[in-house]
Design brief:
seven-stranded mixed beta sheet; 7 strands; 21% strand
């Protein structure tokens, strides 16, 4: 369960913004993630019309996929470029408005209202702003947050989940002494202790 030299690594928000600006987005999956398709039944659990949260969403194509199935999707991302590219690439009309509770934050919402994406730090969100969710698709979020922020991140996620919420988490497994991350190596034992 040793995370090697990664535990003190910090990636600044500016580094993520730079990745989007320069197109260095190796983490984006053009066709969606095969694990979401494989475990979709686990996420939905026979339910329809769910509210599904995409933490650190980027321009994930799965947001449109789930919205097209009749679910409401909410995402959060620091890169405005990523969010605008999402709407452009899917030819989705949207409106933009400030988020009164968060200084400088913006909310981009499809005109149909079924996809709402917040441009801000995830740590500025709360259930009083975005509500609670029936499902979370965490692909590349827990493994992207700085190791020192993991507890804060998980504590926030727990406050955003409804009682019967499903949480699909994708992690990576490798020798953390050979790669500085992100994505960071989060051992299963730590995931269990974080989520309880």
């Amino acid at each position: 369960t040793d995370t090697g030299s990664q535990k003190d690594r910090v990636v600044a928000e500016e580094e993520w913004l730079q990745k989007w600006e320069t197109g260095n987005i190796w983490f984006h999956k053009e066709r969606g993630h095969p694990l979401l398709q494989k475990y979709l039944d686990v996420l939905l659990n026979g339910r329809s019309g769910l509210r599904i949260f995409f933490p650190l969403c980027g321009k994930a194509v799965e947001m449109k996929w789930l919205a097209d199935m009749g679910h409401s999707v909410v995402g959060v991302e620091v890169s405005e470029k990523a969010l605008k590219e999402f709407f452009a690439e899917h030819s989705l009309p949207f409106c933009e408005e400030p988020v009164p509770e968060i200084s400088g934050a913006k909310k981009f919402q499809t005109t149909s209202g079924n996809i709402a994406l917040y441009c801000c730090s995830i740590y500025d969100l709360s259930s009083s702003i975005v509500g609670k969710f029936d499902g979370v698709w965490d692909r590349g979020a827990l493994v992207a947050v700085n190791p020192c922020d993991r507890q804060r991140y998980v504590s926030l996620m727990i406050t955003l989940m409804e009682k019967n919420s499903s949480y699909l988490l994708v992690t990576v497994s490798y020798d953390p002494n050979k790669h500085k991350g992100p994505p960071f190596y989060v051992p299963e034992s730590e995931i269990k202790s974080l989520f309880g």
